[in-house]
Amino acid sequence: MDNYVIEMLHITKEFAGFKANDDITLQLKKGEIHALLGENGAGKSTLMSVLFGLYQAEKGKILKNGEEVTINNPNDANRLGIGMVHQHFKLVEIFTVLENIILGVEPNAMGVLQKKDARKKVIELSKQYGLQVDPDAIIENISVGMQQRVEILKMLYRNNEILIFDEPTAVLTPQEIDELIEIMRGFAKEGKSILFITHKLNEIMSVADRCTVLRKGKYMGTVEIKDTTKEELSRMMVGRDVSFKVQKDEPNIGEVLLSVKNITMPSKINKKNAVKDVSFDVKAGEIVCLAGIEGNGQSEVISAITGLERVKEGTVTLAGKDITKLNIREKTKTGLSHIPEDRHKHGLVLDYSLEENMVLQRYWQPRFQHNGFIKKKEMRDYTEGLIKQYDIRSGHGPTSSARGMSGGNQQKAIIARELDKEHELLIAVQPTRGLDVGAIEFIHKQLVATRDAGKGVLLMSFELDEVMNISDRILVMYEGEIVGELNPKDTTVQELGLYMSGAKRSRKEKGHAK
Question: Which of 1, 182, 216, 322 makes the best surface tag, with the fewest CB within 10 Å?
Fold first, then answer.
């Protein structure tokens, strides 16, 4: 008989009549890495939120080591040894690493916080598991990868034995992904049991023992990884064959659309410059990718172009017009569309409805307003059209709260809005982050179609396969400079990695690319 540490039997979870989970059974063995796979909005995060006590199911039961348990909240889950790293981290940004790790289980004596013992335990755990962190660092000042380490240490500090990772690699660099996979393998060898939500089939094939597949809230089956293939998993997930190769013709390159000249941007972390005298062009009809390990200046370059940050030195020209000092709305009117890196902070107003978010950058146009009043029917009809075209799934269609949508469907909403409005240049920052293989295939086709329509595309991505497959030209950034300009047809992932790590440079004149 199988030794199941957790069994979720016939779980049904509804939201206002919509079944996010419809009679789902999931069984986790002790010491295994069990992947949970499904399209955006398939119910994966909802199911794990039921296990962690954030939601309570209308039907079904949960067993731990064969005995039925009740999990009314995350404190109950923690007492049962269940921990969770959420897709969007649950950290207090103005607190230190140490304060976040011990939050809720603060050691105290006579009501006095005992940080010394907690610090010692955190440092020991970080060394034991290769999760080096600075206990005194403020969360808002550390990288996303470091923040994830903090979330993992929170689980270890609480002695959790069942570890839930919700899209853990969605915001990590390739190097950080490799590190995380090794950490997960180490946990499994120790006897910890891992539930691993992901869209990335390569990761499932490399690290998981078994995989349970959901589709539109229903259970599709559980398979042994050694007995399956990526193609079979993708068919189970989306119900059809998916192409993993981007289909595109040779680019028809036109005039320069975007010209970045001698841009210098300050660092938010220290007194140095994050971007140092960088210049490059993007032409009509091409996809140019800014590649590099996170923290090497790519984000600051994007912020300079889009207006999220003021330019310290240099100029940005779009379609022959100097847009360096224009505000974001004026840049949008000039022909700029932007899929931002942080969908919550810069992409959506989470407490607005989906339809309100879809017209955020267009509500002042005559199509959507008359004498200062929004045309509600026009806004709704427009949103329903985009929902259908981009397969955006939500409980209540156009009136759904953006906050209540899955991360992948939030991303699809932003992409739909930015691609649909008139633009000359599309800046796409991690556009497929958190999307399933079917949605990734669709978005890649949209990016290529944008290029083929004579527009320019500036892509920033940490997914090396995406960089190699979709780019016409790759600009590699390292320590705030452009250190390589590569043609994906003439290079390899290994060579690209050398440039990204700073081990190789191809230009004498650093920081400049044409």
Answer: 1
